[in-house]
Task: structure prediction
Amino acid sequence: MPQIVIDLAYILIVAGVVTILFKWLRQPLVLGYIVAGFLAGPHMPYTPSVSDVGSIEDWSEIGVVFLMFTLGLEFSFKKIMKMGVKPIIAAVCVMMCMIGVGSGVGHLFGWESMDCLFLGGMLAMSSTTIIYKAFDDLGLRTRKFTSGVLSVLILEDILGILLMVILSAMAVSRSLEGMQLMVSLMKLSFFLLLWFIVGIYLVPLFLSRYKKYINSETLLIVSVGLCFLMVVCALKVGYSSAFGAFMMGSILAETLEAERIERQVASLRDLFGAIFFVSVGMLVQPEVLMQYWLPILAITVAVLLGQMIFGTFSFVISGSPLLEAMQSGFSLAQIGEFAFIIAAMGQSLGVTSDFLYPVVVAVSIVTIFFTPYMIKAAQPAYNIVERILPSQMKAILEKKESKENEKEKKESLTLPSAWNILVKDVLLQTAAYMTICVAIILLSFASLLPLCRNILTHWPGNIVCGIITFLLVAPCIRPIVVRKNKSVEARFINKQGKLQHFLLVLFVLLKFYIGACVVYYILDFLSPYWWVWHVIASFLLVVLLVNSSFIKLMSIRMERTFKQNLKKREIYKGNKLRYGNVLRGSDVHIAALTLPAQTAWAGKTLASLAFGKNNIHVAAIVREGIRINIPNASTQLFPGDVLEVVGDDDSIEVFSARMQSETKETKEGIVGEELKLKRLVLRSTSQLCGVSLRESGIREQYNCTLIGFEDEEGNIQLTQANRVFQAGDILWVLGEEKNLESFRGDNAIGN
Result:
């Protein structure tokens, strides 16, 4: 038997036992996995150890892929656009502060510069997994501040990918100059935009076109296959496997199948994620911990105090009230899975010291342990700060969110705002279409051109490749040149005098020049003629494609398909909770709560449950993809219903606790009594004698059902509605024990 099978059996058994213990102790499962890894690792002399640590590390790499893939499934690029600037400011600020704190602690102990830099990167991001779990365990997911925390975590995840790219670039060159950083950012932006555009255009089309052939099993295979395809692509262009997995997850997050994929992949994520965290625990070295106990203590204190202070400060400057800012900052006081990924990257690149990984693991264990206590400490800490703060300072910190944005929307269009909107829209669409053009040209020259030359010889191959490449990029060049030229903003600017008209013409000519540059590059690369002829041909070809109705139709169809794919999931979900944005800045907010499977509210009406007494209003009920907006008092509830409720923090918390507590008692995992089938003989004194089955009322009176009558040969004949009962009939009746006893006592003999 391969050693990897024996090792996997051992670590999974140890992990299972330890996590059950941690579940009983109400501690995070991630912490249990790390402890299990330490017990099964080579640095624990008192327990058996795995033999092939290298193979376990390979499996843990797969765990990182699945962790990042599912993290991407919870991420959406549209969420970033809808969040506004508040979470962006908070995320950037807290990450920059914690990078400084980590680097400072490292320099304090005299560590190497790369160790300090990587330590700062490890402390920059909080644990999404741990915070999600802590909010669930503490019943805080319905609190208003948690939405801000989760938004910041989403941004930290994407910024963490950028940080990994920067750290890997610095690890290779040992320095990162301004130009090198700019090139790295441009390269990252190019691939982010390319993969996102192509993925949103192609993946939803594929899934929708072949939907009837894709069941749950096939969906799992396809989604995991796409994930690892993107992992390979990311590795080919010099990025990490985690980055590729995250990107494919974020692409699939925009499809209608996102929730199904997340459910299908959940088991794989849990399995391989457990192996990853177990492998992390295997790297814990007691002798290193003893040797570096002081740095561990210092880094732990730096994380806790740093997030308490700088995390709160970051949320305050982003516009959050003081209490909400402190609750958010205290929630971020830990490091988690991203720190392990960055630490592993530093080790694989050979730029960090061997002691840094186990030190960070130890700090992570301690901070994870303190996470629920830090969250609980936010309110008492706020009470203390509130008492000692001057009244003027407190009034500033407790400010409500301004409505300046709403006022700006109501204002009429002005010349600066018109130019601002026009330039921003043109830059966005130009960046998107230029990215596609560059990708098409690169792929064409790398793959199509050699093929054409081999088949048709050099110059004929160049001509065919040039024509195909031009036809492929033409639907992308036309929007760059034409789009927004007749928009509302452009027409407004055109009416503001000769100077503005002249500037607008220059702006349009600049767009035309950009489109001509793309065509010129293709001609100049493939054609042997004088460059002047290439310039003339480029301008003529751009004029031709601008006036081509066929190219126009193709361009419109492509963009329409992309927008439909991007908005399809949002439309399908019925713009869920979007109306809650109106309440932004108010104590009252919207929360979506799912009824448990064993809820005691099943079948009950809203009137009978009287939620209004808890100051809760049920705005909508989502059931199997169907929305019931503004349900009336007679609307019944069923397990799995998603209730969109309106209330403040306290009322929603009380409502959530009531919903979780009012459940049916279970016995051996089954709600309700077990059905039994009994053979009974009808007595002559029974009131059923001479009555047909249709008129008997067995279901209504006894809550039982008659399966059939037994004939003389012992066969069971299925019941007929007009069959008349007679004394001595042998009946087979199905029902619960107590109901069967009631039926037998009134009508039959037997057991």
